[in-house]
User: What shape does this take?
Amino acid sequence: MTTRRRPLGQLGMKVAAGLVLLGSAVLGASTTAFAGGSLTVATTTQGSLNHLVGSSIARVLSEELDVRARVQPHTGESALLPLVNSGDAELGLAAINQAMGIYDGEGTGRTQHDLRILTTLFPVKVGYFVREDSDIHTLADLEGRRVTHGYMAQGAMIDVVNALLANGGLTPDDVRPVQVPNVNRGGDDFAAGRADAFFHAVGAGKVSEVDASVGGLRLLPLDTSDEALTAMSETFPKGYRFDQEPRDGLAGLSDTTPLLAYDYVLVVGAGVDDDLVYNITKALAENKPKLRQGAAVLNEMSLERMYIDWPMPTHPGAVRYYEERGVDLVAPQ
Assistant: This one.
């Protein structure tokens, strides 16, 4: 028996056309953000290094790609990275230890396995700051003093601050912890006289703000003895020593100072379109002069260290760009 096809009437043609449009919309849904749509870059609060860098990235992506990239600030990485995992934000910034801890569900039991690394950005340098005229000169001098701690919205910071204390031969029991939710609140409490030392990133806007409000800051240097550096690395294995030279915009440094550093990453959702991620990676890798105009710390980006073999997976769109450029996968510091 032969089945004859009947010609489509006007209604049938409209239905067929509608199905084609619907199919195109479904297939193109993952790329609409790149076709003149919007991207959300999730950051921490204004005044943080995270927010400064995220703002610079959003501006460059808006200029270089056909997107409207906007910054969306949050209290901390533990709030913003789950939004990237769920697809409510395309991009987010975090220290590598924070990204890995949230990916694995450390402390919460809720893994976030739809997070992917897009690129490693730069080493972030951190430390405890005191007033310039303070009698506290070393990390060991923090014993018995009021020191910002806790970081309930930035839980991964606990290992970092405890590593600094360990470098000075101290534990949290040896200081008077001032509980704060995030690094910016710690700066505010210090400026208000509620702490003798506060923890923050070198070069952050909040540090410059506090420096101006209290009449000058001084960053406490690492103890560079083998014993002290070993104690620090045992507490925070992803951290390493970095000798920072003074320059404009780095409040609290007057001489070359040994600091604790660790790598900062840009994270993307696993469901973000490969071509979009490829183009974001390309825009960041090839527009360093524009990026550093908005955040001087991005001057430390290098193509050779954008592709690092972290325990978290790298998004395939980013991998495609690195492989095309001949960038080798390198080991962490």
